[in-house]
């Protein structure tokens, strides 16, 4: 149970649980500003090597400034009242809105509206994949857990990608999630399931699953449990039904984009999110 206050921040209510811990809505009473506070797992501060790595990655994550990427403000460490042990908290931008899951469940978007959201997701993903450090070096961040719950949409229809900040290509990532293949089975790429090296094409596959679900209301692969779903994702003999067979309103060009993103061989997918985004822009539908 988190305290009623975290330093100068007054906890208002829980707002969810992300890949690294519980998330709360809080008020910065000094600035009269709402923020999201993520409670980091205890082991982050118990292991010096891990906590030092976390701080380095947060410095990088704080540099990320893009309209479609949630802002990470800071990390603070405070003693807990019950036992005096240090507890870590990550301060982030609070997004007042829904996530992509609501639109998938409600199926309330036109093809044009859904395309706009997909283009925004691509813009944010391309930014973190192509992130350049202050010294000019590239530091590609692979999300590894693209799913509807990690795609927020504010009241103005603006997409914000969350739960990405520490999913880097560096080997230190492994302390964050127990295995490099950690993710959500329904949205994981075949190479991620196998525990192999992943690059931005793995995120493209996961985004392909999200797009398939957004435009059809169904997942490309559905099974009775996690194990069966994972087998379907990696099996070359199991292929998803074309998205346009489920939703007849999907234009042929859009269907090709979705199915290309879902190719089990990474080399057959789009080589970059930028190319996927460009393909989406060329889909001809009424944008009214």
From TrEMBL:
It comes from Abyssobacteria bacterium (strain SURF_5). Its EC number is 2.7.11.1. GO terms for molecular function: ATP binding; protein serine/threonine kinase activity. The keyword Kinase applies. Keywords: ATP-binding, Kinase, Nucleotide-binding, Serine/threonine-protein kinase, Transferase. This is non-specific serine/threonine protein kinase. SMART domains: S_TKc. Residues 9-285 form the Protein kinase domain. InterPro entries: Atg1-like, Kinase-like_dom_sf, Prot_kinase_dom, Protein_kinase_ATP_BS, Ser/Thr_kinase_AS. ATP binds at residue 38. GO terms for cellular component: cytoplasm.
């Amino acid at each position: 149970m988190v305290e009623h206050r975290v330093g100068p921040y007054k906890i208002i209510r829980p707002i969810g649980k992300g890949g690294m811990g519980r998330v709360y809505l809080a008020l910065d009473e000094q600035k009269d500003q709402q923020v999201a506070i993520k409670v980091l797992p205890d082991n982050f501060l118990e292991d010096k090597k891990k906590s030092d790595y976390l701080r380095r990655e947060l410095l990088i994550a704080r540099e990320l400034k893009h309209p479609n990427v949630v802002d990470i403000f800071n990390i603070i460490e405070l003693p807990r009242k019950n036992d005096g042990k240090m507890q870590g908290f990550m301060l982030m931008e609070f997004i007042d809105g829904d996530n992509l899951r609501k639109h998938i469940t409600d199926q309330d978007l036109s093809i044009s509206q859904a395309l706009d959201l997909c283009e925004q997701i691509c813009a944010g993903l391309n930014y973190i994949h192509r992130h350049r450090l202050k010294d000019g070096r590239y530091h590609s961040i692979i999300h590894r857990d693209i799913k509807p719950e990690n795609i927020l949409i504010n009241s103005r229809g603006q997409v914000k990608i969350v739960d990405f900040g520490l999913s880097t290509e560096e080997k230190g990532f492994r302390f964050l999630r127990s295995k490099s293949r950690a993710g959500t089975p329904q949205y994981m790429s075949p190479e991620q399931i196998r525990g192999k090296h992943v690059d931005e094409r793995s995120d493209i596959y996961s985004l392909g699953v999200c797009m398939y679900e957004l435009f059809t209301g169904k997942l490309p692969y559905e099974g009775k449990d996690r194990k069966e779903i994972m087998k379907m994702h990696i099996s070359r003999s199991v292929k998803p039904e074309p998205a346009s067979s489920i939703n007849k309103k999907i234009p042929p060009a859009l269907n090709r984009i979705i199915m290309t993103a879902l190719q089990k061989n990474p080399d057959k997918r789009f080589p970059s999110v930028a190319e996927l985004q460009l393909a989406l822009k060329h889909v001809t539908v009424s944008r009214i």
